[in-house]
Structures are given as C-alpha cells and as structure tokens.
Model the fold of this input.
Amino acid sequence: MRTYIDSAFVDEVREADELGLVDGVTTNPSLVSSTDREYRDIIDELDEFVEGPISVEVIATDYEDMLEEAREYDTWGDNIAVKLPMTRDGMRALRTLYDEGIQTNITLVFSVNQALIAAKNGATMVSPFIGRLDDNGHDGVGLIEDIRTVYDNYGFETDILAASIRNPRHVQEVAKAGSDIATLPPEVADSMFDHPRTDGGLEAFLDDWGDRESPALK
Ligand code: E4P
Done:
C-alpha cells in the first residue's frame, strides 16, 4: 500500500520522506489555512522533493470555476492531482479534466455509490473519509472493503485513497482491506514505528551486552 502524508506543513512531509513514507501528499483548505501560508508557496516547496502526486483542492463549487482552478493548479507542478468534491458539479468537472489528461482526487466520499460514480467518470483517486464515518458511528474500514469489492468486480482502475485516518490501527486495517493508498496525518505516520516490545527488547539486548564496544566499531 502506498502512503501519502496528509499535511500542508512542508517540514512534516520532509521528515516523513526521510523515513520512507512519502509516496505522495494530500492537502485541503483546512490544512492549508492552518499554516497561514500561500497555497502556491507550499506546493512549490513540496514539488522540490515529493515524487508522487500532490493533491491540491479546488475552492470553487461550480463547474466553470472548478475547471479554471483545476487548470491553473495543474501548472503548479509535474505531478499535481486536482481534488474535486463529490458533487454533481464536481463530477462534471471530473469528466472534462479526465478528457484533458489531468489527474484527479475525488474528496468527501462517504458511500459505495459515490465511489462508483467517481470511478465511472474517470477519477484517478477516490478519497473515502473513514475517520469521519467512524466518528458518526459508521464503519469506515468496512467502506474501504466494499469499494474494493465493487472496483474489482468491474475492473475500475481508480485508486482507493483511504483518508481521514485517525490512528495506526486504521492504517493496518485499510491495508488489509486492499486500499491502494492511505493518507496519513504526520502523528499517525510517526506512531506506526512504535511497539513497546521493540523498545523493551532493544533495552534488554543492550543491557546483556554491557559496556563492551561493538566488534565492528573497534
Ligand atoms: C485528505 O485528503 C482529507 O482531506 C483528510 O484526510 C481529512 O481528514 P480529517 O477528517 O481528519 O479532516
């Protein structure tokens, strides 16, 4: 499973990149607003080292303005994926952008039917928000499983990008469910490294070794 970082803070993405977790990046208006920086400046900096897709979200909600924004965003880098909302205008814009060869990520997906519509219209990626579903008493991971089944049944090539990930358990569950990608908040990416038995095991090995030097470093 590919892992993206869900952040508009460039330093956080760079740190995760050094640990091998950055196959792409997702941003959204809330994340960008939390930085007090210009959207374009953030994307320019990410574009210097991120090799995979960088999702940039439209602010417009009507078809014509979405297209204008999307075409502009597409000039911001070599691997921009335009994030469009799962709305009727969003789907019309998706069809046009598909014909123009522009990568897309359909956001705010909460049902199998929405994921089906996005795939039929040629989405590059579809983003089911699993944490927000869980927050409302629904089954986020179950939605990933169901979309996987439908996409496999009909051979859709749209990638499933599990979004709104809240904890490390979510990551392993969506990986088991066959998600193509998970976009990780930096704190979740960091927590994936940890296990108390790893720390305890290392401490015991080093205690047993004592004060002696490593034979390789003598
Ligand atoms: C990513 O593309 C989404 O915008 C993001 O994962 C949403 O996460 P949230 O539900 O924690 O805001």
